[in-house]
Amino acid sequence: MKPLPNRLSLNLSENRLQIVELVFADNYYRINTLDEVYFDEPLHYETDKDTKLLLTIQSAFNEILIKGLISTTEVSFTLTLHCFTFFQIPYDNTLMRNDLEDQFRWEFSVLYPFKNEAEYQFQFYEMVKSIFVKEPKAIVIALEKRIIDLLYTFCDRNNLLLTTVDCDHFAFDKSVQLIDKKQEKGITGSIYFDDPLVSFELLFEQKPIFMKVFSLKNKADFVNEIKTILAREIPIDLSEYKINKCFFGGDEVTISFITHIEEQLQIPCYSVNPFIQFSIAEDFQNEKYFREKAHSFAAAAGIAFRLE
Question: Given 11, 28, 97, 268, which residue has the most CB atoms within 10 angstroms?
Fold first, then answer.
């Protein structure tokens, strides 16, 4: 039997690079590398020059390489919400992939006439028809091809093979699915912070039924913002259906903050430890991250767990 491949994932936010490496040994995946490096100054992926982005990311990666921890060559990336443009549209699920992309490009050009659709790569997540979604819809995310080319350049320079690129929130959802075995029952909230952006998602039977990305200048305003969305925008009658639980991930999400939100919304709220079912490799370093900051690696871990 062919052994399963090792898995390496990098999570890029505006402020830091995170890395998760899983190695397959003795019929189990074990955590071989868990590390992060903060940038000297925040990155702005849409406006910063490619040379600055590459130099900053490479410098952070070098700090990890110096420790001699990485043994995997195939790599997946999760990127901050700031890298993507989001929109939702009804779509014909009988269309071929190429026809769907043409539809997405046309909608993108109408919604964002100041952007050149030819410079973007499109990916979508299906909102299947259900009691909450009356017609098939797509959550479409658009990423500049320039960013993808930059990641390929980074990989070439480091003898890595790029396999997957995704949004950090959707990768985070994969970690949620793995630790929450009862998620398929009822409605679940998933909230991801990429300061100052917040992505709020509702799922029914593990399928998205609502998503909104918004800017939040002050975390103290979060409860009021969510209450407004729940009252005015979601496709759910909360007098008949309730949100069973809500999972939080992203930048500096603390236990005290989650506890406060739980008290205000009266919804059970949780952080996510993506490694709860994993052991560590014999020569594992940075045990502090594993014991105390595992929840902050949920996006990077999520894309490492994904089966392609």
Answer: 11
